[in-house]
User: Which sequence fits this backbone?
């Protein structure tokens, strides 16, 4: 059908998922929802699948028909439906895998970001040399043109931490990630120095899980929690073998929030974390 999106973004898919959840909670079928708007059931299916957009007026009519009284949620969904943001990541569309773009868009709209990494420095805190070393180790080897595109994309992700209204960001990093040399000694030293500089910013908190911590099993899975306009619209991202998995179910989000609190509680306070990073940088 003409006008359908060939590849909806993760944000567009999430809007559709939330509208379907509201319909399911109201106990209505797609046909019944369509009748309330005077459209076909296939149009409701396309909206809920992210294949087509929905106007704010229609979204609010749907919410009313679904007996949703959460005005904060409705307004947040309306903002998602009407946003026409063309962010910096659009220049990479068609050149990099879609999950790269979805991640950048998620970070751009997040109200806060919390990240846990066990083996690497988190992406938004990486230096160019560190990022290039990571992408250079890929098997099979990336063509030089794509490698540079990935490095450029990763460097531009730093935008969320810069400017007049940066996103609050908290990273919990295992000491292993600080000690593993991605690249040579000089690149590792530069990365640790950059991490120290970033940790001094008021909106950035860096905590370290030390090797000598007793009784820590942890989750051992890198993950990020991105805050939505309302908690129901939070999104978690977990590493997957060839991509990233976006998680939005409330049950799984609850588990991930608990995991983050547990790992955060086991980590060193920010000042002691900086001391450890400084010590490791001086040893290089």
Assistant:
């Amino acid at each position: 059908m003409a006008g359908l999106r060939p590849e909806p973004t993760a944000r567009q898919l999430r809007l559709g998922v939330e509208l379907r959840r509201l319909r399911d909670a109201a106990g209505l079928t797609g046909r019944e929802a369509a009748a309330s708007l005077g459209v076909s059931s296939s149009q409701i299916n396309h909206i809920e699948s992210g294949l087509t957009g929905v106007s704010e007026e229609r979204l609010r009519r749907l919410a009313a028909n679904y007996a949703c009284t959460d005005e904060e949620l409705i307004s947040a969904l309306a903002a998602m439906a009407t946003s026409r943001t063309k962010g910096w990541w659009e220049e990479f569309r068609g050149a990099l895998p879609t999950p790269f773009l979805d991640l950048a868009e998620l970070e751009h709209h997040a109200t806060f970001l919390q990240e846990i990494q066990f083996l690497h420095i988190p992406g938004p805190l990486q230096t160019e040399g560190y990022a290039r070393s990571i992408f250079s180790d890929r098997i099979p080897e990336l063509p030089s043109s794509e490698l540079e595109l990935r490095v450029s994309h990763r460097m531009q992700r730093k935008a969320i931490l810069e400017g007049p209204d940066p996103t609050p960001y908290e990273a919990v990093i295992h000491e292993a990630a600080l000690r593993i040399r991605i690249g040579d000694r000089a690149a590792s030293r530069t990365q640790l120095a950059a991490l120290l500089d970033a940790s001094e910013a008021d909106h950035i908190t860096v905590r370290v899980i030390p090797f000598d911590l007793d009784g820590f099993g942890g989750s051992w899975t890198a993950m990020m929690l991105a805050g939505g306009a309302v908690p129901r619209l939070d999104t978690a991202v977990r590493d997957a073998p060839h991509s990233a998995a976006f998680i939005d179910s409330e049950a799984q989000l609850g588990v991930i929030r608990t995991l983050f609190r547990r790992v955060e509680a086991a980590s060193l306070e920010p000042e002691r974390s900086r001391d450890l990073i400084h010590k490791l940088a001086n040893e290089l």
About this structure: The longest helix spans residues 10-26. The mean pLDDT is 94. Residues 237 and 246 are 5 Å apart (CA to CA). The first strand starts at residue 113 and ends at 117.
